[in-house]
Amino acid sequence: MKITTTQAEMLLKFNEQGLSIADAVTKTNLLIELSDRLKSGKVAFAYKKVNGEIRYAIGTTCLDIIPNQNLPKNEKHCNGNHNQRYFDFTCNDWRCFNKTNLLEII
Predict the structure, then answer these.
(1) Angle between the N-to-C axes of helices 21-40 and 5-16, in degrees from 0 to 180, rounded to the nearest 10
(2) Cβ atoms < 10 Å from Cβ of 106
(3) What is the DSSP string of 38-98?
(4) Cα 88-55-81 angle, rounded to 5 deg
(5) Each residue's pLDDT tens digit, 35-75
(6) Distance separating alpha carbons of residues 21 and 39, to the nearest angstrom
(7) b/e string for 3-31 if b means 16 or more Cβ within 10 A?
(8) Taking a C-beta distance cutoff of 8 angstroms, is the pair 94, 78 a contact?
(9) Confidence of residue 104 (pLDDT cuts 50, 70, 90)
(10) Which neighbouring-strand residues pair with 42?
């Protein structure tokens, strides 16, 4: 399996956080799955917020299903290899989270 530089960085970051290589690979694969599913439709998932709270979200990055008034205007917001940006259907706005804080896809 060929991995991208971003995936390799995530593997290293998870390993630095004390995860075993096997757990780091599992978490990286979960992130890849979330990213792929967000591109094609609505996805329910959970992540840990910076303040420690758990957020359950229903989101997407598929521009075809986001209301026109909510289409992104500023692509630079939340950019970076370690953040996952998504449109949150609960609050009707864009959010992002640190990829290392993804807990599960529901």
Answers:
(1) 130
(2) 10
(3) HHHS-EEEEEE-TTS-EEEEEEE--GGGS-GGGS-S-TTTT-STTEEEEEETTTTEEEEEE
(4) 70
(5) 999 999 999 999 999 999 999 999 999 999 999 999 887 66
(6) 27
(7) eeeebeebbebbeeeebeeeebbebbebb
(8) yes
(9) very high
(10) none
**Hey, what are 17's tokens?**
């956080």
Structure letter (DSSP) for residue 20: -
The ranges assigned to domains in the chain are 5-105
Local structure of 106: helix, strand or coil: coil
Can you read off the two tokens belonging to residue 95? 């959010």
User: H/E element holding 7?
Assistant: helix 5-16
pTM over 0.70: yes
